[in-house]
Amino acid sequence: QVQLVESGGGLVQAGGSLRLSCAASGRTFSSYVMGWFRQAPGKEREFVAAISWSGGSTYYADSVKGRFTISRDNAKNTVYLQMNFLKPEDTANYYCAASKGLILTITNFGSWGQGTQVTVSS
Predict the structure, then answer these.
(1) Quick check: 27 pLDDT over 90?
(2) pLDDT above 90: residue 28
(3) How far is it, in rounded angstroms, from Cα 93 to Cα 115?
């Protein structure tokens, strides 16, 4: 399976921006649909965004649509999540994940990174 490592998390003020990166082992990177999920303390893990194999289609949770942008660079084996206009409710551990198909449920993502913490203060 592909190995995933997230980076770019940190502490920011409300209204600020962060860009998360997810670096993959890359042997068959373009064969994976890539997604971002997040989990806050005391809450279930939830879907944030996903992008198709070559980047032609993107999908977003309603809570982040218009504020977050997912992109990928297959030549660099990297997926990004640009987060703008951050809110305190965006505070969570953010995980990068990979799926072999375009079924955007947690159980269909077979590879996961260890997560990167995003904290938004008010």
Answers:
(1) no
(2) no
(3) 6
The answer for residues whose C-beta is within 8 angstroms of residue 5's C-beta and 6 or more apart is 22, 23, 113, 114
Contact yes or no for 31/24 (Cβ under 8 A): no
Q: Determine the length of the chain.
A: 122
**H or E element that contains 119:** strand 116-121
Residue whose entry in the numeric block shows the structure tokens 């998360």: 20
Tokens representing residue 72 in the block:
């990928």
On the CB side of 69, how many CA atoms lie within 13 Å of its CA?
8
Element (H, E) at 118: strand 116-121
The residue written with tokens 């955007």 in the block is 104
Cα–Cα distance for residue pair 79/58, rounded to 1 Å: 12
Q: Write the pLDDT tens digit of every residue in 87-117.
A: 999 999 999 999 998 898 999 999 999 999 9
**Percentage, residues of the chain above pLDDT 70:** 99
> Which residues on neighbouring strands pair with residue 80, listed in sequence order?
21, 71
